[in-house]
């Protein structure tokens, strides 16, 4: 098997599982006292030595990132959210007690809010006792907006019909409520974002200098004052971002095109960047670049989606680059960098830090924490047997591959090495794997040949992220040879000679509709066969394990063609004087020695037996007379053991179209005949062995128009065949003259 050479992060899976386990009695260093009972374990012991990143919980959102760690939330199948704090340095993870938690942007502060107006803040970096802020003494009317370090940013209606912004904290244990100054009395607050514990941005509309305006106001948390303001158009909507040098916001033009407006702080110089899309986006300023991504309403448990890739555009050159193949959530960290939960082709799924590049260069993307999952489509395991024995494992045979993603379209190509014949099979998702149920047929409906095969599974990710996954390998197909198999695939074939003297193999195959024969593109295995006036398929008479052909030429010489798999070996002369016979048949073991015998009737109606020897040079012994009166039949056909007796049997069709069965007694002779069918006049009986592989020989009726009818064997000598059933039409290049 050839595995893909792309980097895979699957080796981290075990490490992440270890890192996220909770072991009672093991306390995370510096964890707040209230969380000590939850415990934590160190990921480093479980991680591969080459890894230097923390674990990120699978199927989780990023909720916050501070100087020492990050907050994540995970909810699967509508279960309550599980919140975790993970340290960058050593991967130690603390599972927070049941509740709802938020993070203060750019800090290690995590808060649990209760419904009774009490906010509990934990410093996950320094540890210690939590800070409780009870806003009930301040009275009602407050609406929570954001955390700014250890302060609460809240909104409250004022007496003039507008809305004020309040900063509520508890320095030195004293509850303090400070109103942000500088907003108009009739301000309508539409958006508040906290850039860091020190700065917030407020979008509002209100009356300034007697004019209704839309503005973005920069708030200094320490002084609770507005220090900068920027005019916004009415089309300004959604995300705002603030950096040390710029402020940016999202606008929608009249044609709904999304633009990012960027203004250098302290100026009114605004540059608008048309993103070429109409969807709403989240933005973040990173040095001289602005990042943007479409909002995705999909949970992390779902497949990554290329629609939600994270891009960056240069504020100086307009260059646009893709940073992450997809992103589900992002925040700003303590250093002003962007932290995003997403994935890259090289490093897989996890938490990435997007930091400014030196001197305006592209942002630097680095993996901070890993889920252990690849972003590319990868092979997890496969279940392809080394050998497929269709005698023991009936078709269809499952060939399965477990992939790292559910969303993929997979096709499998199987190639027979010796001939190049192919089968292409769709692999469908079932029970966690992509499974191709191979029916044992090539694409042209020929039953697959025995021998060595190569397989190639190509899986194309439905989300459009990354290249197709291609894996390959080998296996072998084996079946026992059968008495009428001329292409080494265990099926009963029909040999058809046309008027041009060409000999064709019509492969027998079985699908959900039952047994049939290849009616298109039969395989030609010889020319010049018009020199023969009698053709017989006796099975393996020469010990090669393949089915053979016996032919009599027009001078009365009998020839043997040994089977050689998917062809016939050069002919060997058996002997002359065979022109005295008007009918030949072979394929039944009449004396129980395990070798097929040959029967012949002469022009006087005498039936003769030629016992098989197993020798390629003298395949038949001296003839033995079985009896006269066989001139009443226009066809005799050896069928194998169809009656359940001790030996092979024979059927004969008389001139009235009646079919008679002669049961072999095991000593080279037959029991008295039994009438087993009527109306066989239009059909040539052909003994083809066990077509439907139920352990009983069957009989084919070939009609002059090319129809191939199957009479299934029953094993009951009184009624050895079911009714004739049309299975297919065979039509070689010219009309058939002989079918055997």
TrEMBL record:
Keyword Signal: yes
Signal peptide per UniProt: 1-30
Name under which the protein is recorded: FG-GAP repeat domain-containing protein
PROSITE patterns with a match to the protein in the record: TAT (PS51318)
PANTHER family given in the database record: ATP_GTP-BINDING PROTEIN, SENSOR KINASE-RELATED
Species whose genome carries this gene: Streptomyces sp. R44
UniProt keyword rRNA-binding, yes or no: no
Keywords from the UniProt entry: Signal
InterPro entries (UniProt xref): FG-GAP, Integrin_alpha_N, TAT_signal
């Amino acid at each position: 098997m050839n595995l893909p050479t792309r980097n895979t992060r699957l080796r981290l899976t075990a490490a992440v599982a270890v890192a996220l386990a909770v072991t009672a009695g093991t306390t995370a260093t510096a964890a707040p006292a209230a969380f000590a009972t939850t415990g934590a374990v160190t990921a480093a012991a479980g991680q591969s030595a080459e890894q230097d990143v923390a674990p990120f919980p699978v199927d989780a959102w990023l909720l916050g990132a501070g100087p020492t760690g990050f907050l994540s939330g995970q909810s699967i199948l509508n279960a309550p959210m599980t919140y975790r704090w993970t340290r960058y340095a050593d991967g130690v993870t603390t599972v927070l007690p049941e509740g709802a938690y938020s993070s203060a942007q750019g800090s290690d502060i995590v808060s649990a809010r209760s419904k009774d107006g009490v906010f509990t803040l934990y410093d996950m970096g320094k540890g210690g006792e939590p800070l409780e802020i009870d806003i009930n003494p301040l009275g009602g009317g407050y609406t929570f907006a954001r955390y700014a370090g250890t302060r609460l940013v809240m909104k409250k209606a004022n007496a003039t019909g507008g809305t004020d912004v309040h900063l509520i904290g508890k320095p030195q244990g004293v509850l303090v409520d400070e109103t942000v100054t500088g907003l108009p009395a009739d301000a309508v607050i539409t958006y508040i974002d906290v850039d860091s514990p020190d700065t917030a941005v407020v979008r509002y509309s209100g009356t300034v200098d007697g004019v209704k305006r839309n503005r973005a106001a920069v708030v200094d948390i320490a002084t609770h004052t507005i220090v900068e303001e920027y005019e916004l158009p009415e089309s300004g909507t959604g995300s705002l971002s603030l950096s040390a040098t710029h402020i940016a916001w999202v606008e929608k033009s009249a044609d709904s095109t999304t633009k990012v407006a960027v203004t250098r702080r302290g100026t009114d110089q605004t540059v608008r960047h048309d993103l070429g899309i109409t969807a709403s986006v989240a933005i973040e300023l990173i040095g001289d670049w602005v990042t943007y991504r479409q909002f995705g309403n999909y949970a992390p448990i779902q497949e990554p989606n290329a629609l939600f890739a994270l891009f960056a555009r240069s504020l100086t050159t307009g260059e646009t680059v893709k940073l992450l193949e997809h992103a589900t959530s992002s925040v700003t960290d303590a250093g002003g960098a962007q932290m995003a939960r997403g994935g890259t082709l090289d490093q897989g799924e996890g938490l990435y830090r997007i930091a400014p590049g030196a001197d305006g260069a592209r942002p630097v993307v680095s993996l901070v924490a890993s889920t252990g999952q690849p972003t590319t489509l990868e092979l997890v395991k496969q279940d392809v047997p080394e050998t497929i024995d269709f005698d023991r494992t009936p078709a269809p045979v499952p060939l399965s591959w477990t992939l790292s993603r559910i969303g993929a379209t997979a096709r499998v190509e199987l190639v027979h090495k010796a001939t190049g014949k192919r089968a292409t099979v769709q692999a469908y998702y079932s029970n966690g794997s992509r499974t191709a149920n191979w029916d044992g047929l090539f694409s042209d409906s020929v039953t697959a040949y025995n021998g060595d095969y190569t397989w190639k599974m190509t899986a194309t990710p439905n989300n459009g992220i990354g290249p197709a996954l291609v894996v390959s390998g080998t296996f072998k197909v084996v079946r026992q040879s059968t008495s009428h198999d001329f292409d080494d695939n265990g099926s009963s074939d029909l040999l058809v000679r046309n008027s041009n003297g060409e000999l064709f193999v019509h492969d027998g195959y079985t699908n959900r509709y039952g047994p049939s024969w290849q009616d298109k593109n039969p395989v030609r295995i010889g020319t010049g066969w018009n020199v023969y006036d009698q053709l017989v398929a006796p099975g393996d008479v020469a010990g090669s394990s393949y089915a053979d052909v016996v032919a009599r030429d027009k001078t009365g010489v009998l020839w043997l063609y040994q089977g050689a798999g998917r062809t016939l070996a050069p002919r060997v002369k058996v002997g002359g004087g065979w022109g005295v016979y008007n009918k030949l048949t072979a394929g039944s073991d009449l004396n129980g020695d395990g070798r097929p015998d040959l029967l012949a009737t002469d022009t006087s109606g005498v039936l003769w037996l030629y016992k098989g020897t197993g020798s390629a040079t003298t395949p038949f012994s001296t003839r033995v007379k079985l009896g006269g009166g066989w001139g009443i039949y226009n066809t005799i056909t050896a069928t194998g053991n169809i009656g359940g007796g001790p030996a092979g049997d024979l059927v004969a069709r008389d001139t009235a179209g009646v079919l008679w069965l002669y049961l072999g007694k095991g000593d080279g002779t037959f029991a008295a005949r039994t009438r087993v069918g009527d109306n066989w006049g239009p059909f040539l009986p052909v003994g083809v062995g066990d077509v439907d592989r139920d352990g009983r020989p069957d009989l084919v009726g070939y009609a002059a128009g090319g129809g191939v009818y199957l009479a299934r064997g029953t094993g009951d000598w009184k009624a050895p065949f079911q009714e004739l059933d049309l299975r297919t039409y065979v039509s070689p290049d010219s009309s058939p003259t002989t079918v055997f």
